[in-house]
Amino acid sequence: MDKTAPKTVADLMNRKVITVTESDTLEHLEESMLRLRFRHLPVVDGKKLVGLISHGDLLHASSSFLSDKAAERNALINKVTVSRIMQREVLTVRPEELLVEAGKMMWEAKVGCLPVTDVNGNLLGIITEADFIRLSMHLLGGDVNGLTPPPMQE
Prior knowledge:
Distance between the termini: 16 Å
Largest sheet: 2 strands, antiparallel
Number of helices: 6
Number of strands: 4
């Protein structure tokens, strides 16, 4: 492996994380996730991680577009708070964890992301499948439109 390649979660994680609170409603979450191109929203109380909502959670909560009453059901669903559908037990990782261990955790648990927290449970960032794909492409010398190489250690 390239000596300048990221080795720890802190080297690769995204520190600019969009979050929601338990009292936020579902009304614009799916639209925002699609527009901003992400699939996971950490749920926080202040800085403390209390849960996670995935795009799949939102799809599961929404009414099927095939339903004859989809519009009415979705109007009700949009008023539901995040606390009703969020995952409360979330697998997390520390910033000093080796990337290989974080990747192994994600693979074995079949999760698409790991929120990065400190010892007090405060959210510091997130690492996703997309981050690992971006790193893989960089290490393999690949070039993908819109793909920014991961930050490198100095």
